[in-house]
Amino acid sequence: MFGKTNKYVYDDKIDTVIGAKTTLEGNLTSEGTVRVDGIITGDVKAEGCVYIGESALIKGNVSATDVHLSGTVEGNVHASGLLKLQSTARLYGNIKAQSLVVDEGSIFQGSCDMIGDKTISMIEKHAKNSSKSQRKGSVLDDVYKEKEREKLETNS
Known about the structure:
The chain is of the alpha/beta class. The chain contains two helices and 16 strands. It folds into two domains: 14-114, no CATH class; 117-155, no CATH class. The protein has helices at 117-129, 136-155, and strands spanning 14-18, 23-25, 28-30, 33-36, 39-41, 44-46, 49-52, 57-59, 62-64, 66-69, 72-73, 77-85, 90-92, 95-102, 107-109, 112-114. Helix 1 packs across helix 2. The longest helix has 20 residues, at 136-155. The relative contact order is 0.10.
């Protein structure tokens, strides 16, 4: 009743858990939801949510639908939905998110790019049409070029 309350309300079942006493070197890819309390040296990519606990350290990029950060990330974070920085969060990298919530006390050093529904759908469209060997950066370049063409067409 008066004990610690869980900071997270899980909408999804957790498919993958990296415990506090676990260290992972390499990339983690999941089609579901991921909870990290340990150390990961590598990128984390999930089709669901990523919950990063207070004891967690990720030295790499994080990409998911929603990201709830209470620990430390040394890399870029891309959330196609919500990025929530809890009061204990430390993020040293760039943000790309549709929605951002920052609690008082959190630390963020980097740049932030807010993306809308149209940008997300264009990224997904180009990602589906691109070959697997194509670099992620070139997919984003295509999206930005298409946005510039649309601007020119509307200004003409």
